[in-house]
Design a protein that fits this description.
Strand content: under 5%
Largest sheet: 2 strands, antiparallel
CATH topology of the largest domain: Four Helix Bundle (Hemerythrin (Met), subunit A)
Helix content: 55-70%
CATH class of the largest domain: Mainly Alpha
Number of domains: 2
InterPro entries: GntR_C, TF_FadR/GntR_C, Tscrpt_reg_HTH_GntR, WH-like_DNA-bd_sf, WH_DNA-bd_sf
GO molecular function, one term: DNA-binding transcription factor activity
Strand order of the largest sheet: 1-2
Protein name: FadR family transcriptional regulator
Number of helices: 9
Distance between the termini: 32 Å
Pfam family, one: GntR
Domain HTH gntR-type: 15-83
Radius of gyration: 20 Å
Order of helices and strands: HHHEEHHHHHH
């Protein structure tokens, strides 16, 4: 089985300071540290905490506004919006191998194909390390003959996070990893058939090849649907 190239061996452009501040503030908002209605610290306070210039802080705030997480009231300050915690509600698949699972795989193919392409364009060294470590975790669990569904889900989530699109992350985070096709396959079969597909996705993202990443993700999810179909057919025999 080929080993994926470690992220440190591929040169990527460092993430901007504004993006790092944006990620930090977004995480605080999403986790509730900065609750709805709360006023953000002043520009000066943020420069001291984040260790960056006011220009960087202003750019990060503008991006937060564009994401719909905060609003700035002239002469008063910037406040966390009340409805940032709301997300689209997806009904989890109810029966392994049932129609809902196939429908979710179709949804994932639509969403994650483009997510892989965006990740190839936007991922920095930290993102690549997170994706790579998730890939290694899948391999480790599978070698032990254990179910790797949660690790597999994290692999896909790390790719979604690398897109910098919070809405995409919100939607994918609602998909139950227990409904994934690999949960219905023997671990050794899962390792031999699926790991190469994951490696292809990671390698394309690491090289910054958007079209290659899209193609690899699309093929992986199409194959996953076929594996699920075969597993469902076998279980009825």
């Amino acid at each position: 089985m080929p080993t994926s190239t470690p992220p440190g061996s591929i040169r990527r452009r460092p993430r901007s300071l504004a993006q790092e501040v944006l990620d930090s503030l977004t995480e605080q908002i999403r986790s509730g540290v900065l609750a709805p209605g709360v006023k953000l610290p002043s520009e000066f306070e943020l420069t001291q905490v984040q260790g960056v210039s006011r220009t960087v802080i202003r750019e990060a705030i503008l991006r937060l506004q564009a994401s719909g997480l905060v609003e700035t009231r002239k002469g008063i300050g910037t406040f966390v919006l009340e409805n940032v915690a709301s997300t689209v509600t997806l009904e989890s698949a109810r029966l392994p191998g049932g129609r809902d699972v196939f429908a979710i795989l179709e949804l994932r193919t639509c969403i994650e194909t483009e997510a892989a392409g965006l990740a190839a364009l936007r991922a920095d060294a930290r993102d690549l390390e997170n994706i790579y470590q998730a890939l290694q975790s899948i391999e480790a669990r599978a070698r032990l003959g254990e179910d790797a569904s949660s690790e597999d889900f994290q692999f896909h989530m790390q790719i979604a996070r690398a897109t910098r699109n919070l809405y995409l992350v919100d939607v994918l985070s609602q998909l139950d990893p227990r409904n994934a096709p690999r949960a219905n396959l023997a671990p050794e079969r899962y390792l031999s058939r699926v790991n190469n597909e994951h490696s292809d996705i990671y390698e394309a993202i690491a090289r910054g090849e958007a079209e290659g990443a899209r193609a690899a993700m699309r093929m992986h999810l199409i194959n996953s649907r076929e594996r699920m179909r075969r597993a469902a057919t076998t279980s009825r025999e």
